[in-house]
Amino acid sequence: MINLTRRQVFWLGVAVGTIAVIFLVLVLLSWLQPAPSVQTALSEIKATQVAQATSLSALESSGTVTSTPTPLAGPPPPEKVLVTVERFVCEMADDEGTDNTVDMSLFQFAVNGNILHNWTSTNGYQEMNEGDVHYAGEGIEVPYGQLVLKATVIDNDRGISEDELGTSSLTLQPSQLLENNGKHFLYIYSDDFRFRVEITIAQSITP
Asked: In terms of pTM, does the model score above 0.85?
């Protein structure tokens, strides 16, 4: 039988207790540590994410792709538009005579050099004063693109003095054709008259 002193018994107890604590800590660590297969899967996922981020960064740097979203495209422009000269409105008349009436012998309107409306008075002139209207109402289909609109009028002075010719033109870019609901205006000025020419441009329904 082994006889131990109290001091030896104390230190033996300390040693046994220390060993027990270490054993318990090792057991707990083994429980908390993920299984090797889980660790491997997590490592592979992380490596894939890093590779994808590196590849995307390289593509953005080269300009192959961009991280900025591409805006949605709007509707395509029409192939053709319908141009209609609606009317010539007399805004001022100050001709020879007591009533200041102008005697118009020509109302003409052209689109890209093609005459659309060409009115001439059969009796030599049409009397007009402020507020009077010459109605045209003629239209033409043209390809969608730049348009040059031109209007011409003539005041017939019936030999009292020289006839007065007035013209006005307007160039519209494609993006301007349908602005303001397609409403456009030409203004023709002279010493004896002022006319406002009203034009409408609309998308053609003809295929």
From this structure: no
